[in-house]
Amino acid sequence: MASLSIEKTHDRSGDGSTSDGGKITITNPSNGRRAGEVDVYARDQVEGVVERCRDAQVYWGALSPNQRGQLLRRYRDFLLDARDEIAETVASETGKPLAEVFAAEMMYVCDGIGYWSKKGGRYLADRRFSPHLLKTKVPMTTYKPRGVIGMITPWNFPFLLSIGEAIPALMAGNGVVIKPSSTTPLSAVLGARIAEEAGLPKGLLATVTGRGNVGWDLIDFVDMVSFTGSVEVGRKIQIKCAEQLKPSTMELGGKDPMIVCRDADLERAANGCVWGALSNSGQVCLSVERVYVDESIHDEFVRRVVSKVGELRQGLPNEDVDIGSMTSESQLRIVETQVEDARSKGAKVLAGGRRVAGREGLWYEATVISEVDDSMQLMREETFGPVIAIQKVKDENEAIERANDSNFGLSASVWSKDKVGAMNIARRIEAGAVCVNDHMIHMMIPEVSMGGIKESGMGHRHGAEGIRKFCQEQTLVIDRFGMKKEALWYPGMKNRARIFRRLLNVLFRSGLRNKLWG
Q1: What is the pLDDT of residue 18?
Q2: Model pTM?
Q3: Does 288 lie in the same domain as 204?
């Protein structure tokens, strides 16, 4: 993810918000109008919110998973009742179309509540083991909530990556305090307000708003940190958590490759490329950022992509459009810089390549660029904008080599009619998740974990680890028979030396003859 930074509470030019004393005014990036405002929290206020959350967590953590699940499903009903207000709020601070809010952000959160309320209890149930040696003991693992989880969340999916990420933490019995991006805080604030209206304990799901220093303060008071954002900020947070011996998870940047093999279904691959690269105006950590196409099909693939991009409609959230505005002025400038760098080094801009002329707001044209190479920023640095960069390769081996030549390793995709061959290619790609003939859809499958390698992060969402990471794991060992004395207990150890010496041979020597007479 891009663009979350540790900054002071002073104004930051062009980030979509302005500060006026103790308030931050949020600007709608699609039209430049005021979308709302939030408070700037002082350090003692942050501490107070966490303490109230901690009080609520005591009650919440004592509930059974089934009871927590029932209350979370009630919360989902309230979210559904407020879905239009939520969609309008998300759209007003991000500029994305209402359809994207409903289909991505709302769908993810509502499905996640159903999934975690159903499966969470199973993932958190005591796990019994059968020892291979000490058969008189019954060991088990239990999962206890950590307490209060601090979540520092980004601007690109302000509802999904705040409320959606909070659901498994809540299901695990924790309280959650969210520090949303100062660019898009309204969605998380609304989600927390609805949680109280739905009957969740007051303060259990809370927000603290302001600039980056508010998130920095939050780290000091919580029991665990979950961060989604840039590599640069992730490193700083990781260091601070390490100094306090505080657990943390990180989902950081991505530069996700798409490999199009010579036997790919070009129509599906071209459609998947356009959606995978331009969804949410390209402001997705999992989006297609580098496209490597076999030289035998390169020209036809490019032709189809350019044609499909030309058919897209770009406009205001409440219009019948495919793509909305960008969300952050600073991120738009990064896109402009990368495109101009590629153009100056010989790349060909086949579609788009500039801001939308004569329109107020943060609008950048859907862009297709070919003849790119690894010297260009567009192929090395996270773009986070509506740009499709396509590079011709001679075969799948070159594609894999180029795909792996990156500091990032979040996700990738392979496109081929030969699914077995595509799976073999996928296994060679250095990424936490790889899709075959699809892209980033694994984000919508909570059964399987997802997480990055290299500089793309630490820890996983979804699956068993996606909820257990919010727990303290405790081992319990129970004696099975209750004998008065164990073989290792005092006194008499000296007299048992010969027995244990012989037992070592019987247990661990290879070969029956050697066990008996070795």
Answers
A1: 57
A2: 0.93
A3: no
